[in-house]
Amino acid sequence: MLWRTIGLRLLLGVVTVLAVTVLIFAATNVLPGDAARAILGRAATPQAVAKLQAEMGLDRPLVVQYLSWLGGMVHLDMGRSLVTRGPVVDLIAPRFGNSLILLCITSAIVLPLSLATGIAMALTKGRGFDNIANTLLIALAGIPEFIVGIVLIVLLSTQVLSVLPPTSMVPSGQTVLGNPQVLVLPVMTLVLAILPYLSRLVRSALIDAMASEYVVTARLKGLPERQVIVRHALRNSLLPAIQASALSLGYILGGAVVVEFIFQYPGMGTALRDAVGSRDLLVIQAVVLIFACGYVLFNLAADVLSIIVTPRLRG
Amino acid sequence: MLDMHEAGRAPATGTGNWALRVRNLRIELPQGGDIVDEVSFDIARGEVLGLVGESGSGKTTVGMALLAYARGGARITGGEIWINAAGGPVNILAHDGPALRRLRGAAVAYVPQDPASALNPALSLQTQLAEVLEAHEPGLSAAEKDRRIRESMDDVGLRGDAAFLARYPHQLSGGQQQRIGIAMAILLRPAVIVLDEPTTGLDVSTQNRILEVVRRLCDEHHIGALHVTHDLSVISAIADRMLVMYSGRVIELGSVADVFNRPHHPYSQALLSAVPELLSRSALVAVPGSPARPSERPPGCFFAPRCALAEGACQAAAPPLALCEPDHEVACHKAGAVATNAPMHLPDPDPVPARPVLDVAGLHVAYGRLKVLKGVSFSVHKGECLAIVGESGSGKSTLSRAIVGLVQGARPGLSFHGEALHPHARKRTTPQRQKIQYIFQSPFNSLNPRQTVASILGLVHDTFNRTGADERQRACIRALNLVGLPARTMNLFPDEMSGGERQRTSIARALLSNPEILVCDEVTSALDVSVQASIVNLLKRLMEEQGLTIVFVTHDLALVRNIAHRVLVLEHGVVAELGPVGQVIDHPAHPYAQELLHNARQGDLTLRVARQGEGG
């Protein structure tokens, strides 16, 4: 039963990704002008444009173009960049790796930290730690992440303390892992951006669970308080946290464009920004598709986890 | 928690056959003032003490206090609660921390009100049962744990095999869930168990089986039980003695037979007179006014403002609890005087002339593949009350919602004054919608909490009329007066009203559209018995004075006897029987109707008391 449910979600995920590919392809095709015009510039003669269109297969019916583009994506043949003329894959692969590193490190910090903070706040509800943490987190939630990033740069790499590099640019031929100091500020900024949201969610879910009838029952059964909290309350309050974590991971992978830009971090976000700037259509398509796949994948994982912690959903 | 009492000091009366002794229990609200005070009672081993009272009387608060637990910031600030536990008498209020934890579940256990929300949805039955043993008797071998769990499951009449124990709460029926709650409570063979309305929300037959289990377990294992309920019939079925609470005080305490046959407190008399009887129609007596909230208690006797016998002495000083006859205590200056006569018996009503207003012909309703109504046909006659009865799952609520056009998946089959009614309310004409009105089961969520009564009622008036503000105001007040509410109700929000007042407001809202038919779906099941009596009397009066036709959906056959002209018995979406109220209840013909009536007779208060009077 469990496997059937998971299989069904997986199928739905595939359908979602296919729908996204249609959207991406359609969106890039309804824009005025095509790749051939973009490459040749405004001064090109109609003959030259037609010749290049034929070379690039742009004169074929849209459906055929879509299918060949989709086939290429599946085989990781994403075409050639309109700007560098190199394969899109070669351009994106290192950026993808860097984003993945940022994602892993950030989530390894922010997920347990949010859980711990949320639990600590729920257990001290309305008292010392909860009041202080809540005030700080709400203030933090009100500050846009680019300001958090800039403040961190001011504090840690320029005026006050000069211990970290203000930008995350890596000499060509080296990876971010080889220069771990460049990761610190982007990771800190992302953690500070996500922590208020996730930890306050854990807090309210746990407070709800602690007020539930089954927690009263557990207490009146004479269970140790620790067991009441961990086994009875926490388990049932994980559900919203799991779903929210999936959205946060999607955000780090794709939506952190601003944070990557502040620190000039060589990830997918800056790749997307550069591609938009130079109208590099094929790169835009590829990056957006990867973001979409990421969201679908994280949500799928969250759904499966939810089913595992919620017997009722197992059907 | 109380520090002034020393742990381990035995009560003066020594160790005997007693299970529980409560002395001068006082519980305070966070903002000061007491919820309950001066509560004292005993429970013997193997004895079931019934604790009755209406909502707000403090009965659940007292029940939970027996485990030294108070909800929502309330604090237990005085008194002693002695439990005759296996290791010797212990005052649970003198303990806290780990010592208190060890007493909870082992010396005194709790069976919660609603097992659907009191069992953890994420844990298997095995886990939830085993953790009780693990917390109190660590080091128990797996085999011993399994044996103890199987024994408890046996006790409550459930399978104790691994496959059943691997289930989760949502895979059980309501009755099975409650049995698990009881199995969990008796696992450690406590001296005392507290049962908090354990059968509310269950069918009569399921309820009877659960009560039998509780009774048998208390006898077999010499457990003293406090059974908290608002249902007098449950008390008469299970309890040896009973305690009546009103506004946080004990007002009467005695054997079930004594209190039912000779209630000495005017409030006890009123409660008993408000219970409908199954075997004859009676003039239900409602208590005027509403219960005193802790913040609004009058000086002297708290019941005095609602009491027919009250005089100067009652307002001057609160009466102490005193013996009025052997083993029967009452707190009343006028104890024993008759304040409420036993209800007057009435004949069953004559049938109304057969003038159909609403015809139901071969009505089918399906939710997806599940067929709920399978070709139901009947007519509702002008000016009658037609009761629709059946167990949960019979389709009675679906039928009532189909009549007002609120269900998806209904096929045509309704006509009103000979004109076809569309299955969906949205597609009906305005007069059709106006003339058939619906009253919801729970007045606690059928009124918008953010609107005053004036705007709730005004909206209905404006939907059907175009008038100025003055006329709207007059019409709304007229409707409120019709249901017995004063004009000042207009300025109240729903949460400023009691349950009975809210249900009256819902009825006023329906009356504003000047309906011919009122469809009432279990309209009294969320209300206390005295409030139920007043709502039933109101509906009867509206039928007589306004010529209203009522479709009354309920599971309570005694209530049917008291309001209906005819009864329709629904079984799994099919009409099993339809006839005059006296005939269906006294001489049911269909086997399903006979079974329903058999269960109702088992649960009927008057019949139970009569059976006990005969010594069986």
From TrEMBL, chain A:
InterPro entries: BPD_transp_1_N, MetI-like, MetI-like_sf
Record's keyword terms, sorted: Cell membrane, Membrane, Transmembrane, Transmembrane helix, Transport
Domain of life: Bacteria
Coiled-coil ranges per UniProt: none
SUPFAM superfamilies, A to Z: MetI-like (SSF161098)
Family affiliation: Belongs to the binding-protein-dependent transport system permease family.
PANTHER family: DIPEPTIDE TRANSPORT SYSTEM PERMEASE PROTEIN DPPB-RELATED, PEPTIDE ABC TRANSPORTER PERMEASE PROTEIN
Entry protein name: ABC transporter permease
UniProtKB/TrEMBL annotation, chain B:
Organism: Tabrizicola soli
Family indicated by similarity: Belongs to the ABC transporter superfamily.
Annotated compartments: Cell inner membrane
InterPro entries noted in UniProt: AAA+_ATPase, ABC_transp_ATP-bind, ABC_transporter-like_ATP-bd, ABC_transporter-like_CS, Oligopep_ABC_C, P-loop_NTPase
UniProt keyword list: ATP-binding, Nucleotide-binding, Transport
Name of the protein in question: Dipeptide ABC transporter ATP-binding protein
Residue intervals of the ABC transporter domain: 20-272, 358-597
Pfam family, one: ABC_tran
GO molecular function, one term: ATP binding
Major site of localization recorded for this protein: membrane
Membrane topology type: Peripheral membrane protein
SUPFAM superfamilies attached to this UniProt entry: P-loop containing nucleoside triphosphate hydrolases
